[in-house]
Amino acid sequence: MHIRATVAAVCGALALSALAVPAAQAAGGSSFGKDDVRKAAAAAQAASGKTAFTGATPAADGVPYPLNITFSAVKINNGKPIVAGTSGHVSVPVTYKVTHDAAFDLAAPDVFLDVEIYRGTAYDAPAKVLWGDDWPTCTATSSTVAGCKGTIDVYPGQELDNVDATSWKAGGYVIDFNDQLGVDIDDVDWSKVGYAEQDKLATTRLQRLSKLTVDASPEPVKKGRTITVTGKLTRANWDDNKYHGYASQPVKLQFRKKGSSTYTTLRTIRTSSTGTLKATVKASVDGYFRYSFAGTSTTPAVNAAGDFVDVK
After folding, report:
1. Which domain holds residue 79?
2. What is the pLDDT of residues 166-204, one digit of tens each?
3. Residue 130 belongs to a domain
4. Which residue, 36, 188, 208, 268, has fewest beta-carbon neighbours within 10 Å?
């Protein structure tokens, strides 16, 4: 089971207690657990008392020193909203650039970085955070710039609530343990730990997956007789992991003649309190009926598959 903390960042003594990490896990960098590094990053933040260490004194006792690293050109899901159903796994691509000092080794096994998305007012005080299962892959494009590719892995059945269908922001961090990955927590020298954090790198939106059905009957039908077209618009409910009708939404009834590739809108009707749809039309020629929903800020657009009616 995929379990991780997605609420506000850990801080204080609880966060500090999470920094003890097995050296064997750290070998190779990518084998080290994401959750552990996130907690350590939160601990570094708590130790500094400041988000990006503005005003922190390098090498001060117990205070991580600021790394001169920045994120840029962050793109989440190729600029499209993130759409999730009620179960399974949605892997969201993330790309960005990292700029650092020429002397800094971004590929060192004790250096970890990531870009995450969060809901809330600020990266250091989020209501919820989502990140990837694996570490990003970064490729140097110069002595000071690297291009990185990663993912945000979303498990809606375990992580999402309906309130999460809204705008999210991206934040990134880099933490350099400087050969202290195997050190006991009581012996960690925080003045040797480097950390950088950057907020509001990009925005994205989470949406609740929508489904739309259609059924035109009778089939076949005589020309001039009445065709009844029914359907239902539903969307994912992340509170109970089921699909429920989407009430009072405008939906277009459309028709495409046999042999044509273009749908024409016949009329617009609204869904009932349970998301159902019903309309009647006169049979004229063979063709396909469908319903089309334009979407909302919380729910993506969807078209029902066309239902063919043979007119005699």
Report:
1. 34-48+61-207
2. 999 999 999 998 988 777 656 768 788 899 999 999 999
3. yes
4. 268
Q: Is the pLDDT of residue 15 over 50?
A: no
Q: What is the largest CA-CA distance in the chain?
A: 87
b/e for 117-156, b at 16 or more Cβ within 10 A?
bbbeeebbebebbbbbeebbebeeeeebebebebbbbbbb
d(C-alpha 217, C-alpha 229), whole Å = 7
Cis peptide before 218 (omega within 30 of 0): yes
β-pair partners for 307: 289
| pLDDT above 90 (res 18) | no
For residue 101, which of 145, 136, 58 has the smallest C-alpha distance?
145
Q: Is the pLDDT assigned to residue 283 strictly greater than 70?
A: yes
Mean pLDDT of 302-307: 98
Omega before residue 136 within 30° of 0, cis = no
Lowest mean pLDDT among 59-63, 266-270, 281-285: 59-63
Q: How many CA atoms lie within 13 A of 240 on its CB side?
A: 4
Question: Is the Cα dihedral 278, 279, 283, 284 positive or negative?
Answer: negative
234 found inside a domain:
yes
Which helix (DSSP H) or strand (DSSP E) does residue 243 occupy?
strand 242-245
